Amino acid sequence: ARLTTDPAADHLPKFFPSSTHILFRSERAGGGLYVMPALGGPAKLLVPGGRQGVVSPDGRFVLYVVGTSGDFRRSRLYVIPAEGGTPKQLAAHFTSAVTGIWSPDSRSILFGGINANDQADWWLTTPDGAEPVPTNTLQRRSPYASLGAPDSWSPDGKWIYTTGVRGDAPNIWR
After folding, report:
1. Alpha-carbon radius of gyration of the chain
2. What distance, in Å, lies between the first and last C-alpha atoms of the chain?
3. Strand partners, 15
4. pLDDT tens digit string along 78-135?
């Protein structure tokens, strides 16, 4: 069943843990993140200009990026209450902060970023904006593989999955 009918592109739906609502990116009205009932109904703009929205596992927050698609060096990472409100920028002093994922308990956020000293890494922070801590993941990586940003945190909290390139094709790495 078709759920959205706006002439602009609506894409990347993600369920809230309650399964009653979805978060999605829309290009309508300049683009942003919207929330709507999972079975259809009116969509509500949550974040003008937001991209890469990720709902926290407890359903309380949405993590998202603001910036030009494809230009990661100017992207900024934010968190906002799922019902709306004032967004909080994470890693505000970073040159770039992108592609965040939630820990299974919703207490931590792992993201790819470049700090003011031009150190590229995966960084760990909290939804309230604690100072990001480097994981040194990109310094320890295989010299034969180029790892992307973190994609998924295992439900038991033990593993991070990402896409990496070794040779000609991207593969999944843990």
Report:
1. 16
2. 36
3. 22
4. 999 999 999 999 999 999 998 899 999 999 999 999 899 988 899 999 999 999 999 9
Residue 145 has, within 13 A of its CA and on its CB side, a CA count of 20
6 C-beta neighbours (distance < 10 Å), count: 12
Closest CA to 148 of 128, 124, 120: 120
Is the Cβ–Cβ distance between 160 and 153 less than 8 Å?
yes
**C-beta of residue 26 within 8 angstroms of C-beta of residue 43:** yes
> In terms of pTM, does the model score above 0.85?
yes
**Beta-strand pair 61-66/76-81:** antiparallel
How far is the C-alpha of 106 from the C-alpha of 126, rounded, in Å? 9
